[in-house]
Design a protein that fits this description.
The chain is α/β, with parallel strands linked by helices. The chain is built from 23 helices and 20 strands.
């Protein structure tokens, strides 16, 4: 059922049908509804999704596409006794609404203190796992099914809802390999096939699913030839119309009754019920918060600056190729792919393969640029370390969404990349402070043929350029006082905050210098030499305080025998909740006033210790 955008605000949950409760607060209530009332409920839920997500931002298309499927799952299975796992967790908005969180959803989705945009075990017992990285749910399902068998809980169903895009990830195949080999352990895999992840699903599996969609009749029987799932030991049911309640419930009940590994192939439409999302599923995969009509134009994002810079490099360097893990648009590679389609490779949601493939490209004489979100590079650390760095291969990693990302929450904050990459021998990491430096550093990274490089930047708008007073062998001096009391080292965009902090510290008669190392890891000899001339070093970075630039600098100074204290200012060593990026940085003290306050306090402590060593 299509709901025109103009009528969203006028549509209320169940208002037009007295047989539907004002809010479905539980799966138990849902199962009491007659099946002929479900289309009206689905339409009402879509109205809530549209009103809420278009207002506050979030994942719109994926959730519009799973309304009927989620309703059917909660009618057939008894959550949380039966275990429902969603991969990835961004498609759980309807699940949240149906499990007692409908009012909270409309009020505070992705807002500080409100509901997470992903499953959250602290919110509800119906959220069994907290996941927003793809291809993991099948591994959880395998382990949970094993535990249920060992504990004698044979009456509990384990259901994993997995998108066709997530099936491109290696972890999904590893789990299928194990689940299919154990027919005595029933796992229901619901393949939510809409032909997309962020963008159209790529690869051989996508072609296989396309053949199943087009060559087999819609229903719950699967004639020969066998599917890839049957070859791996699963029963196969489908393809099933994912927006037909009768067909959905019949297929799910049959899968439940089989009591063995089974794949239910469900065909859904991403963005169902909202024409703009159906017409442009990639753009409407996720939306930002609605801007007021009188808002000023949005400044350029870091991703846009990178996208243009890489195209410029591609025009000059025919050996430069680009790799994306199913996210050409969000990582800025879409423009490169449009200009150089033969030199841009979408490997699916498979970061490990992306990096290993990049190693192969570099071995054969190309210079790959692997563009991923910072948090997703965590998944390929072994490949970065032992397939790229060990061989000293010239691969450039571009890490979007580094540091605090905002409303997506703990699994999307890129707060560990500096800590992880600091452990990789021979890998150089750059952190640009502004758009000009991003273009410069990307050029320098791609020009480096001696080994791997990385360039990191946040999910944010690019501020104004910050001119350097002087550049000393690659290190930019941004602010200088004749006295040498405090050296502020600003990492990436925090360099601007350090300049503001220096101006405040000058009011306290402290001599402060601010530098931007540009290449922040490994710590250069020139940076160490600069530090030796100051009484206190303060490093500000949007990385966890456990590791990163401050830790590396302190170790490097200690190795020289210097006893200069280093105060590291960064993010707390914990999983950060979702919230406003500026507010999270302010809470961590990573603003001009916050950095000034911390530096002043550290300096006073140092003076006190030196005056009273006892």
């Amino acid at each position: 059922m299509t709901i025109p955008a103009s009528s969203i605000a006028e549509t209320t949950w169940g208002k037009s049908d007295p047989a539907i409760p004002p809010v479905v607060d539980s799966p138990e209530q849902l199962r009491l509804l007659p099946i002929d009332r479900l289309p009206r409920l689905a339409a009402a839920i879509r109205a809530v999704l549209l009103e809420t997500v278009l207002r506050v931002g979030g994942h719109l298309g994926p959730n519009l596409g799973v309304v009927e499927l989620t309703i059917a799952l909660h009618r057939v299975f008894d959550s949380p006794r039966d275990i429902l796992l969603f991969d990835t967790g961004h498609q759980t908005y309807v699940h949240k609404i149906l499990t007692g969180r409908g009012r909270s959803f409309a009020r505070g989705l992705r807002q500080p203190g409100g509901l997470s945009g992903y499953p959250n075990r602290g919110e509800s017992p119906h959220d069994v796992i907290e996941n927003s990285h793809a291809s993991t749910a099948l591994g959880y399902a395998d382990g949970i099914a094993k535990a249920c068998a060992l504990q004698g809980e044979h009456d509990r169903a384990v259901v994993a809802v997995v998108g066709d895009g997530a099936f491109t990830g290696g972890m999904a195949f590893e789990a299928l390999n194990n689940i299919g080999a154990a027919p005595q352990r029933p796992v229901v895999v619901v393949l939510n096939d809409n032909g997309h992840s962020y963008s159209p699903t790529a690869g051989a599996l996508a072609a296989h699913l396309h053949r199943l969609r087009t060559d087999r009749p819609t229903g719950v029987t699967a004639p020969a030839p066998p599917t890839v799932f049957e070859l791996l030991g699963f029963d196969y049911l489908g393809p099933v119309n994912g927006h037909d309640f009768t067909a959905l419930e019949a297929a799910l009940r049959r899968a439940h009754a089989l009591r063995r590994p089974v794949v239910v192939h469900v065909l859904t439409v991403k963005g169902q019920g909202y024409p703009p999302a159906c017409a442009d599923p990639e753009r409407m995969h996720t939306t930002g918060a609605r801007r007021s009509s009188d808002a000023t134009p949005t400044p350029r994002a870091w991703t846009e600056v990178f996208a243009d810079a890489l195209v410029d490099i591609g025009c000059r360097r025919t050996d430069v190729v680009a790799i994306t893990a199913a996210m050409p648009g969000p990582t800025g590679l879409a423009r490169f792919a449009q200009r150089f389609p033969q030199r841009c490779f979408d490997v699916g949601i498979a970061e490990q393969h992306a990096v290993a493939s990049a190693a192969g490209l570099a071995t054969a004489g190309m210079h790959p640029v692997v563009a991923v979100y910072s948090t997703f590079l965590n998944r390929a650390f072994d490949q970065v370390l032992l397939d790229v760095a060990l061989h000293r291969l010239p691969v450039t990693f571009v890490l979007d969404r580094a540091g605090v990302t905002g409303p997506d929450g703990p699994s999307h904050h890129g707060t560990w990349d500096l800590t992880l990459l600091a452990a990789v021998p021979g890998l150089r990491v750059a952190a640009p402070r502004d758009a000009t430096r991003l273009r410069e550093l990307l050029d320098e990274a791609v020009a480096d043929g001696s080994g791997p490089t990385a360039v990191r930047f946040p999910k944010a708008s690019v501020g104004p350029d910050i001119a350097a007073l002087q550049r000393l062998q690659g290190i930019d001096v941004l602010y200088r006082d004749r006295c040498r009391d405090v050296l502020l080292v600003g990492v990436g965009p925090l360099a601007g905050e350090c300049v503001q902090a220096a101006q405040r510290l000058g009011e306290h008669d402290l001599g402060v210098t601010v530098i931007d190392p540009r290449w922040v890891l490994p710590v250069s000899d020139l940076l160490i030499g600069a530090c030796l001339r100051y009484r206190l070093i303060v490093v500000a970075e949007d990385n966890t305080v456990a590791g990163g630039v401050a830790t590396a600098l302190q170790r490097a100074l200690t190795d020289t025998g210097a006893r200069i204290p280093v105060r590291g200012l960064g993010l707390a060593h914990r999983f950060l909740a979702h919230g406003n990026r500026a507010a999270i940085l302010a809470e961590a003290g990573l603003t001009g006033p916050g950095i000034a306050e911390s530096a002043l306090s550290a300096y006073h402590e140092l003076v006190h210790e030196q005056e009273d060593p006892s």
